[in-house]
Amino acid sequence: MKTDARLTPLAASLPASVPFVGPEAQERRRGAPFTARLGANENGFGPSPKAIAAMRKAAGDVWMYGDPENHDLRQALAAHHECQPENILVGEGIDALLGYTARLMVGAGDAVVTSAGAYPTFNYHVTGYGGQIHAVPYTGDYEDPERLNAKAREVGAKLIYISNPDNPMGTWHSGAMMKEMVQNVPDGALLLMDEAYIELAPPGTAPVIAATDPRVLRFRTFSKGYGMAGARIGYAIGAAPVIAAFERVRNHFGVNRIAQAGALAALKDDAWLAHVQAEVGAARTRIAEIGAQNGLTALPSATNFVTLDCGSDGAFAGNLMAALLDAGIFVRKPFAAPQDRCVRIGTGPAADLDAFATALPAALVTAKGRALL
Amino acid sequence: MKTDARLTPLAASLPASVPFVGPEAQERRRGAPFTARLGANENGFGPSPKAIAAMRKAAGDVWMYGDPENHDLRQALAAHHECQPENILVGEGIDALLGYTARLMVGAGDAVVTSAGAYPTFNYHVTGYGGQIHAVPYTGDYEDPERLNAKAREVGAKLIYISNPDNPMGTWHSGAMMKEMVQNVPDGALLLMDEAYIELAPPGTAPVIAATDPRVLRFRTFSKGYGMAGARIGYAIGAAPVIAAFERVRNHFGVNRIAQAGALAALKDDAWLAHVQAEVGAARTRIAEIGAQNGLTALPSATNFVTLDCGSDGAFAGNLMAALLDAGIFVRKPFAAPQDRCVRIGTGPAADLDAFATALPAALVTAKGRALL
Predict the structure, then answer these.
(1) How many helices (H) and strands (E) does chain B have?
(2) Which family does it belong to (chains A, B) (predicted)?
(3) Do A255 and B251 form a contact (C-beta atoms < 8 A)?
């Protein structure tokens, strides 16, 4: 196809890249639904029943736009995090907030540092604004704060991305280590700390940092611990001037009114969050056991998924994933070597994990058979 | 405040501009809720009960991300518009789709043509990507297709924006005239035809154009006729290569799952849409009557609002709007002269229009009193 001359040179240079193919698309291609949906880091234990009730109630009010200031939710989040509403930015999911961040901070050729194999949607946004990704390797199966800061210093990065706990590996650092990372952020850089999974991590994983610290922007979401991925609502915590800059580019009326109501109710339901934490913890143990019974080693996880080391290479893990998909078990795997030797299994209800346990032995046989070809 | 050195030069140059202050923010400032919410071009007759039911059902599934391909809705929309799914782009409201369009097409200094006083959110996106707005005046109270195309030819515009029916005036052109406009789009330009209100316009207002025509991108929404403004879901119809370009920049997982379900149900409920069309038509007549009883002239409207000519200048209309707001009637008004001599009143349930009718005489007295100061 001839390139459309109306596209900007940057837009014309971009690939039509989709960071993730959704499970529905895979189901359409295979011609059958999955038995277990364990690949998208969703929370199969679901949102708080109070959040569902609030969303059902709000459905009747959906003729009204949502409040573009997200006032009530920002007030509640500020109280929750013991900061001011001016330190809270609510948006249509972390993906959108990362996109706005790239738009604000990344121009042509600007350096951005992340880990090789970390969140591809972040890279998609950076590349989409003409930024230059500098990826450092994981150390072991951990993102490496020192390496990230050192690379940022070396290349004069505008942005540094880290997720803690990490996706796709599930590993994590202590709050103390993350605080040290913040303190060592090079001048001129903004640290983006993606804490999407933080509610599922051990106490002490979230660093104690002032919300007013201008060196860091922390990203949170209602998609994971709160079980509302389909609602598209997340937030960032940061210094007021950094938060205020988003007024220049954000889609002010972009947050769904039903999501606003659901998030507010979810945030208040500590008991349900505790229930989810317990269920996720039990499911992590179960996945590790299923792995061990089949010769696969679970990495430690502070998330709602468990990454299983298949003990071979990326091709083997890819074959295993393909065999699981064929068997109706939707899972994904890390993209970059050597982490791509793993498959990533979401925590989910017992029936889903049963289906995974049932499918895994034959899938391993298939993968091993392919490895011998 | 010192400018954050991490911002791009473009971002640093942008004002923190909010195209519209929401009614909730105004309610917080005045310390009381509005009696009638008639200012945001919302549809107070609400969405189809079947759409509400579908959204309530989907609330229980919100732990899953929505399908990033929006497959089912695109299929349904393609059938509805007798085109292919490849001609349909679903996104998180027209606002977001206009933003993506600006991102794809508008670079620093690129010329964009619109009408003075037309949709400010479009201008916000264009300016936000460094584009140069060239605004032509309305002709009478109508956007002027010939003038827009001529200006685009003169300045070598990348984009031309027109809304038909028009917001904020409510006026409209025939489909035949819009088709002629498409045929005269200058080479190198893309015509953005915002048809947000099209379901509320007389038959024949939508031009008969091939969905594959590469000169035009048509924007539709579930916010207006379908009454789902808070759900943030809209779509564009265009040539497949133009639609495909959005894969390079869009937030693939950006559409709310509940909104997807609601939109699909709303699209199928022709009877409810007919009900809304009848209610909106009756409310337009009623607003015109209320205006006439108070010496204000209603402009013809093909939308879910009626623009009332106050017969004076922008200052007078501003005072009238302020007096209505003080009286608890949320309305807005056009920004640019001479259209700013008007106030814009949304169609809504009878009780809301009763409240408007009750408040209007005293508000006019107040506005006339201020005019004498």
Answers:
(1) 13, 12
(2) Belongs to the class-II pyridoxal-phosphate-dependent aminotransferase family. Histidinol-phosphate aminotransferase subfamily.
(3) no
- Single-letter code of the amino acid located at B15: P
* CA B242 – CA B104 distance, rounded (Å): 10
Q: Which of A1, A8, A72 to mutate to test the interface with B (most CBs of B within 10 A)?
A: A8
Looking at residue A373, its pLDDT comes to 72
Q: Which tokens sit at A154?
A: 């070396």
Domain boundaries for CATH 3.90.1150.10 within chain A: 21-46+271-372
Query: A190 vs B6: CB contact, 8 Å cut-off?
Result: yes
Instruction: Provide the mean pLDDT of chain A.
Output: 97
CATH classification code of A21-46+271-372: 3.90.1150.10
Question: In chain A, where does the domain assigned CATH 3.40.640.10 lie?
Answer: 49-268
Are A93 and B44 in contact (CB < 8 Å)? no
Cα(A116)–Cα(A30) distance, rounded to whole angstroms?
A: 30
In order of B37, B141, B323, B343, B348, the CA distances from B309 in angstroms are: 20, 10, 16, 7, 19
A49-268 placed in CATH 3.40.640.10: yes
CA distance A208 to chain B (A): 24
CA B57 to chain centroid: 28
Q: Is the pLDDT of residue A209 over 70?
A: yes
- For residue A231, which of A196, A263, A197 has the smallest C-alpha distance? A263
- Dihedral-angle region of residue A70 (phi above 0 means left; psi in -120 to 50 means alpha; beta otherwise): left
The ipTM, to two decimals, is: 0.97
